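Handoff note, outgoing to incoming analyst
You'll be picking up this chain. Sequence as last confirmed:
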Amino acid sequence: MGLHDKGDPNMSKTPVNNIDTEHPKAPLAFGPTKTEIMRKLLRRKSGASMQDLMATTGWQSHSLHGHLSHMRKSGQIITRIERRDGVMAYRLETPESGT
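Most recent structure output, in case you need it:
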């Protein structure tokens, strides 16, 4: 077969868009996105440390820093706090929190 041959002539000629409309499949169920999980962690009173976010999302620190920067640029208020145990954490401020 050459580069421009149309494939095996013995292959089935079933159209690609042959969709079974009589037996539709159930829609796929997806869980929360990593961004939604991040927001939930960041909304906690104690915020979320970089280690918390890395463990939960599976992202590396440079990816998390980039995502936090994107969240800030989109108008969300993210503050950096020091926890009682000395660990630095990030917290997503909400208008109700007043800070």
